[in-house]
Amino acid sequence: SFLFIFKRLSYINYFYIIFYMRTAFLQPNQLITLNDYPMHSDSKLKDYFHKCKLGDALPYVPVLQKTLVKRHFDAALLQTFAAFEHTHPEAQYFMLDGSHRTTAATLTHCKISIVIYETTADILAAKKLVATGRLLASDTLNHTLEENCSILNRHFLEKPYFMTVQQKTEKMIADHHLPS
To answer: 25 — alpha (psi -120 to 50), left (phi > 0) or beta?
Structure first.
């Protein structure tokens, strides 16, 4: 009977992942990137670029809605972000991971596949996607929703500027920071 209950719970958890966790496809101007410019691995970018060119699906990029993240900003960072929002109203999500994937998708004019963490339960459920290859293992999976928001706050306090994935990719092109 315990085994039956465990199997039933596993099915319910899988059901939750498929039907309740929100996923979407975004344009690069809808996603606020991390300030990790220039990128650290040309080989990862090349690999994802080739996968995009072949039409292969890339793993989801984990994101948080900007309304959640903004609550963790101090007054100065909120002011900087307000100026960014004014000129980029379409940017609705902060990415937690996935700079190489988002850049490759942008360079190949592909939409970016995202998974939206709205609750800590979403993050726990997302861990099961790692085994399927639809999500990459990352440190974001080891933190609650609030902790991930706090981590983003610290990240942007260290580098207090904001860019969309589109802007970052255009900057990489202009600065000749793309692998050949």
So the answer is: beta
Peptide bond into 38 cis (omega under 30): yes
pLDDT at 90: 98
| pLDDT score at 4 | 39
Rounded CA gap, 107 and 173, in Å?
9
The span from the CA of 85 to the CA of 90, in Å, is 8
Q: What is the pLDDT of residue 32?
A: 98
Instruction: Name residues whose C-beta falls within 8 Å of residue 37's C-beta, 6 or more positions apart in sequence.
Output: 168, 171, 172, 177
3-state secondary structure of 164: strand
Which residues in the chain show pLDDT less than 70? 1-20
pLDDT score of 20 = 65
Q: What angle do CA 27, 53, 88 make, to 5 degrees?
A: 15
Q: What HEC string does 72-117 produce?
A: CCCHHHHHHHHHHHHHCCCCCEEECCCHHHHHHHHHCCCCEEEEEC
Collapsed DSSP state (helix, strand, coil) of residue 122 = helix
